[in-house]
Design goal:
With 567 residues, the protein is mostly beta strands. The chain is built from two helices and 42 strands. It starts with a strand and ends with a strand. The N terminus and C terminus are likely disordered.
Length: 567
């Protein structure tokens, strides 16, 4: 009778038991001489054997035993279906014999390095069929288990989804391996599946991955573990993630002549000292590495990330741009390079105060590099930034080297008030002083006052025109009367000299209140005419002199503004 037997790691010699008569020609076995298995995996050894049915009872159970080459059948077996037979400790739960020994299936699970040797098979069936097939001893070769394979199904590009698979060879069908990822990137979903390839059993774990630039350079590990208990076998593969992403300029690094280093993140302005030598470095990150260029205004300066400026002068002041580019995109950072100077009033924005319906406001603008810190001193109280305290509100904004601040005062502010707007930076300080003279003479609104002023102005113009007409006519009549009088008297002194009686010189350069008119010169010849004529004509000489204009305040002098606020 013939049977088929599959074994993992066992050998066999045909031997009849001592004292037992048997026909060796009826006890035969066919099996491969050797099988190869990776450590931790399973192997099936196909094997066919025959025995003499006359030696066995048809109702008896057929038992099979696998032993190591040097082991006696009196010792524990490595695999058997005989529940009364003991098993070697190292073979527990690893060697499996088919339930149907007559079919000859023997399975070896989770091979270890120590399993690499020869094995033989023995059968027993009552009454007397007992035989060890030692002439055929299959050998088992245990080799190193390969690491799992990681495959990227697509390019690793930031923001673009990709699938990653980890593939491991199959173990025993009843004992699949455990596959897991030691590092799971953000936005990833692992899932497992089984696949047959060329008749071999493999297991696959797939990772749905959304890469980001923060994942670049990190390790991704797929680990596979076969079996459990006290002697599991594990293998793993690790890869470095190479994520492509567009460049990002992180900062501008400035090294001054004294070797001091400052880092600027997204600067709008970089201030240096005049005559200083500086080195500007454009710190850009990207994968692949970005090509960096420098430009001033629209002119290219260098194709290197380092820009050197020796002995900085006014011609170096302006807008600079750092541009970084690679195959994934580009980034640009621009800033204004300025030379440091102390605060001073801005020429384009003069300080001033004005009244509105709810109070009054004062505005001051101060230029400096670095940008100024602006503070208000209101009757001894300090205000700055964007703040509100009671009836006082300050609003400040900075644009490059121009700082502008507005002080708004609401409520009752009668009387005189002393205000100071001060700009400060590392180079010095500049104060602008305001003196506010406020009175409560009128409760009229500004629009009403403007209307009244306009009416009065029109009225004054009309009165002036009428007065001029009347005076002109009066002068003509008086001139005719004087001419007739001169003809009647026939006096040799009938004309009034410009330097004679009736001529006063007024010097408007005199201070108000100190004006004293000069005494007229005496002229005896015309005394009666001049003193007795009620319509005497007088001439006055008025001398104007233009006062010197007040000089503009220099950048080193405090500036004072005067404002009169009427209610």
């Amino acid at each position: 009778m013939g049977y088929s037997l599959k074994v993992l790691v066992l050998g066999l010699l045909s031997t009849c038991l001592q004292g037992v008569q048997c026909d060796p020609l009826k006890y035969k076995m066919n099996a491969p001489t050797a099988v190869t298995v990776p450590e931790g995996l399973c192997v099936i050894i196909p094997c066919n054997f025959t025995y003499d049915p006359d030696d066995a009872s048809s109702t008896s159970t057929l038992y099979g035993y696998w032993y190591k080459e040097e082991s006696s059948d009196k010792l524990p077996a490595v695999a058997t279906n005989d529940g009364t037979k003991s098993i070697e400790d190292y073979a527990q739960n690893r060697f499996t014999l088919s339930d149907e020994v007559a079919h000859g299936n023997s399975l070896h699970q989770r091979s270890q390095k120590s399993d690499g040797q020869k094995y033989y098979f023995r059968m027993e069936k009552e009454r007397s069929a007992k035989f060890s097939y030692k002439t055929v001893q299959p050998s088992v070769n245990v080799i190193n288990l390969e690491n799992p394979e990681i495959i990227f199904w697509g390019d690793l590009q930031a923001g673009q989804p990709v699938n990653i698979t980890c593939t491991a060879p199959g173990s025993c069908s009843l004992k699949p391996p455990h596959i897991f990822w030691k590092f799971t990137p953000r936005k990833s979903t692992p899932r497992s599946s089984e696949m047959q390839s060329n008749g071999s059993q493999v297991y696959i774990s797939m990772l749905d991955f959304m890469p980001s630039k923060t994942d670049n350079g990190k390790e991704l590990t797929c680990s596979v573990t076969y079996g459990g208990g006290a002697s599991p076998v594990s293998k793993e593969r690790t890869v470095l993630l190479n994520i492509r992403y567009a460049p990002l300029i992180q900062q501008i690094q400035v090294t001054h002549g004294n070797d001091s280093v400052k880092n600027y993140t997204a600067p709008s302005q970089i201030v240096v000292e005049k005559g200083d030598s500086v080195v500007l470095r454009c710190m850009a990150e990207g994968n692949p590495p970005a090509n960096v260029t420098w430009a001033k205004e629209s002119a290219n300066l260098t194709t290197d990330k380092v820009l050197k400026l020796s002995s900085v002068k006014m011609q170096d002041v302006g807008e600079y741009k750092c541009h970084a580019q690679n195959s994934e995109g580009s980034d640009t950072m621009s800033f204004q390079l300025s030379i440091a100077y102390r605060p001073r009033p801005c020429k384009q924005k003069r300080p001033h105060c004005w009244r509105d319906d709810s109070g009054f406001q004062c505005n001051c603008s101060i230029c400096s590099s670095p940008m100024p810190r602006i503070q208000w001193l209101v009757d001894g109280e300090t205000l700055e930034g964007n703040t509100t305290k009671g009836y006082k509100q300050v609003t400040t904004w900075i644009e490059m080297d121009v700082g502008t601040s507005t002080l708004r005062l609401t409520g009752n502010w009668d009387g005189d008030h002393h205000l100071v707007c001060s700009g400060t930076n590392a180079k010095g300080e500049y104060p602008i002083m305001f003196f506010l003279f406020s009175s409560a003479e009128s409760n009229w609104s500004q629009s009403t006052i403007n209307a009244v002023v306009a009416v009065l102005a029109v009225f004054a113009i009309v009165v002036l025109i009428v007065a001029i007409v009347l005076i002109s006519k009066k002068c003509q009549r008086k001139s005719m009367t004087d001419l007739e009088s001169h003809k009647k008297l026939r006096t040799p002194h009938s004309e009034i000299s410009p330097s004679g009686q009736g001529f006063n010189t007024i010097d408007l350069n005199k201070e108000a209140g100190n004006y004293v008119p000069k005494e007229p010169e005496k002229a005896e010849e015309s005394a009666d005419i001049v003193s007795n004529d009620p319509e005497e004509l007088h001439y006055a000489s008025i001398t104007f002199s233009v006062p010197n204009q007040m000089p503009e305040p220099t950048s080193e002098e405090p500036q004072t503004e005067y404002a009169e606020i009427k209610r």
